[in-house]
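// run 5 | inverse folding | seed 20
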């Protein structure tokens, strides 16, 4: 063992001003290995990504309503500049669905008996079951489109595990001027991607921790009328009490609240669903969330289901208030003030 103050070549990895053991390169001794327990973090992330997953077709709609069980563990260790992941999960989910024609409601389960690093997500077994009775058409919907959506959510979990959770585990090493220049050039050339993962990047490549928001609200108006309120310029300007730009078509732009909210329509399924790129003026430059609005008819009323993915963590509360106060409450006042929904034209 080297004497105090003497440099032993076995332990000198690189010169660093902070004296940090870069990437645990001298991990020949187990005590020097960096490892993080990702179990609790993973349970929260899996719930966030899986609960609220929705699918719909001409027969009906289904939604993952609850995470009944998540058993297992996950961890990440860093050794010689490499990250090593371990995860093994047994997951049980509940789903509920509604048949469009009859309004009949059905429930069932989704089981993922063995999600681990041993298999690709596409090869992971996912079983769908339904409680006794009719509703096989909804079960078929869950076994096809529903399973696809669940796999997407599992892929998002693994991406977050390998990026968001591991932030800071791999430290930068000493670079030469040429390497620094190359790094800067790559950052300059970085093209921003839509914020659809729990860890996004701003316009200069800085990672932004994000959250997903799920909200629901009941409106005393028809699905058709509520859909129009969100997609018709005059009606948007009336409930928002401000100027607006609304190009309600795929690829069309929108601007609300005098330019404080802007974005683009990614999908419009008439009277059923609106998918948008969405950003508030105060957010990091070029950072967008993905907002999905699902319209569900409920006996003379409409349930609006909001799923907003990619909201900067520091803006979660203000985003919720934006929807609660500036959208939900104002739209309700707007519809009540006119009485007959047809008078909103």
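// decoded
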């Amino acid at each position: 063992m080297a004497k105090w103050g003497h440099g032993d070549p076995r332990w000198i990895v690189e010169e660093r001003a902070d004296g940090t053991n870069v990437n645990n390169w001298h991990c020949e001794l187990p005590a020097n290995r960096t490892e993080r327990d990702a179990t609790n973090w993973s349970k929260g992330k899996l719930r966030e990504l899986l609960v609220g997953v929705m699918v719909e077709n001409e027969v009906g709609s289904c939604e993952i309503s609850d995470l009944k069980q998540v058993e297992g563990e996950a961890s990440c260790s860093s050794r010689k500049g490499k990250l090593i992941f371990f995860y093994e999960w047994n997951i049980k989910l509940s789903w509920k669905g509604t048949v469009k024609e009859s309004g009949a409601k059905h429930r069932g389960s989704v089981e993922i008996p063995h999600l681990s690093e041993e298999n690709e997500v596409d090869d992971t077994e996912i079983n769908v079951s339904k409680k006794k009775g009719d509703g096989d058409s909804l079960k078929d919907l869950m076994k096809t489109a529903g399973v696809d959506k669940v796999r997407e959510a599992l892929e998002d979990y693994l991406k977050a595990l390998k990026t968001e959770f591991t932030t800071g585990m791999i430290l930068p090493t000493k670079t030469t001027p040429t390497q620094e220049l190359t790094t800067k050039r790559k950052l300059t050339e970085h093209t921003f991607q839509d914020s659809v993962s729990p860890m996004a990047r701003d316009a200069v490549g800085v990672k932004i921790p994000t959250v997903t928001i799920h909200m629901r609200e009941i409106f005393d108006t028809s699905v058709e009328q509520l859909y129009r309120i969100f997609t018709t310029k005059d009606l948007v300007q009336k409930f928002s009490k401000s100027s607006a730009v609304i190009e309600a078509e795929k690829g069309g732009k929108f601007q609300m609240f005098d330019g404080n909210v802007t974005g683009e329509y990614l999908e419009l399924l008439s009277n059923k669903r609106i998918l948008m790129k969405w950003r508030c003026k105060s957010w990091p430059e070029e950072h967008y969330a993905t907002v999905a609005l699902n319209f569900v008819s409920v006996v003379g009323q409409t349930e609006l289901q909001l799923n907003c993915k990619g909201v900067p963590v520091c803006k979660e509360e203000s985003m919720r208030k934006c929807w609660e106060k500036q959208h939900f409450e104002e739209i309700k006042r707007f519809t009540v003030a006119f009485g007959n929904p047809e008078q909103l034209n």
